[in-house]
Design brief:
With about 140 residues, this protein is mainly α. The protein has four helices and no strands. It has a domain of about 90 residues.
Length: about 140
Amino acid sequence: MATTEETRRLSELIRGYTDEELTTFRSNRIEGSIDVILADKEFERRARLAQHELDRKLMLEQVGWMKFASKLTAASTLIAAIVGAAAGALITFWLQPTAPSMQSGPQTPRVQQQSETLMRGDLKDKATSVPSKPLETKSLPNKR
């Protein structure tokens, strides 16, 4: 049985082998021995490191695409707001009646119509007319 110190030295030696050297080392040993177990563990360690590096590259690429997507979303939202405001202004402009032929009769501004009516005296509003006789007032009794 190998001691802890011997196992540690063998493990450090195996880490320095290339994949081909590690395969040759493993094939020349008895199955189930400490040498074979250490060689298998080294293969697993290398596979985990390779997978970790691939995962890291994938994650960095995904972060880059997420940044691009957020910038694209912000730009498209801004463009949509501008186009929406412009469309609203155009629709409002197009819906306003501009030609007199669309309306019946001659058109004059409302203020001009009201002033002409007042000048003719046709408009008699009871709320604004002056009463012909003064209103009677009743005084309230003083309570002292």
